[in-house]
């Protein structure tokens, strides 16, 4: 049994296959990796600018020779090969403000959209008969605030990713933003009942 691993490199990350033999390096992060069912190929989602979120697909052989790459996308995740190895499926978005969809890239780099996805799903696998295994990917962020002189915290959770940004000089008010499905609105709340 041989394994491929992703390790921290000098600047970014490296793919080793087999373990100990470097075959690919990026200054950023490897977001996902998947062996092809034939032709001795490995696919990775390479995010060359760590923290930026953008990624591209790279298909290489076991020696690290790149066969195909995609353009940079805002989001790429959840790699899975068709059973015959003709296409690499993934969920992604070309635009950071758009929802994710299920896409396929063939071995020449040609892309097609398989299906738009509702909400946030992550591709886990594609069965030999074409059935797709998706997993729900939901995350939330909570926000609690205790004003100066208050005896307890107040739960300010509002949509799905409440995040504190600033506190007023008198420590009575909190500025926070919302991410995820609420599209990064910025709101100012003094308590659970009022939004200004």
Task: Give the structure's gist in a few sentences.
The protein has strands spanning 5-8, 13-16, 22-26, 29-35, 41-47, 56-61, 66-69, 75-81, 87-93, 101-106, 111-116, 121-126, 132-136, 144-145, 154-155, 162-167, 174-178, 186-191, 194-195. With 196 residues, it is mainly beta.
Written description of the protein model:
The chain is an all-beta fold and 196 residues long. The protein contains no helices and 19 strands. It has strands spanning 5-8, 13-16, 22-26, 29-35, 41-47, 56-61, 66-69, 75-81, 87-93, 101-106, 111-116, 121-126, 132-136, 144-145, 154-155, 162-167, 174-178, 186-191, 194-195. Strands 4-5-6-7 form a four-stranded antiparallel beta sheet, with no helix packed on it. A hairpin with a 5-residue loop joins strand 4 and strand 5. Residues 183-196 have low confidence and may be disordered.
């Amino acid at each position: 049994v041989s394994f491929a691993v992703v390790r921290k490199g000098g600047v970014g990350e490296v793919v080793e296959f087999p373990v100990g033999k470097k075959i690919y390096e990026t200054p950023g992060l490897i977001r996902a990796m998947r062996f092809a069912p034939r032709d001795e190929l490995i696919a990775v989602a390479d995010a060359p600018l760590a923290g930026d979120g953008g990624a591209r697909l790279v298909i290489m052989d076991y020696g690290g020779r790149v066969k195909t790459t995609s353009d940079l996308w805002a989001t790429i995740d959840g790699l899975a090969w068709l059973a015959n190895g003709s296409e690499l499926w993934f969920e992604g978005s070309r635009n950071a403000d758009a929802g994710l969809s299920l896409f396929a890239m063939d071995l020449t780099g040609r892309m097609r959209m398989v299906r738009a996805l509702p909400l946030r799903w992550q591709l886990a696998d594609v069965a030999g008969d074409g059935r797709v295994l998706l997993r729900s990917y939901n995350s939330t962020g909570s926000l609690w605030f205790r004003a100066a002189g208050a005896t307890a915290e107040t739960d300010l959770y509002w949509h799905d990713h409440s995040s504190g940004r600033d506190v007023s000089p008198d420590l009575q008010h909190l500025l926070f933003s919302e991410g995820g499905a609420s599209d990064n609105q910025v709101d100012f709340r003094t308590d659970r009942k009022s939004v200004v």
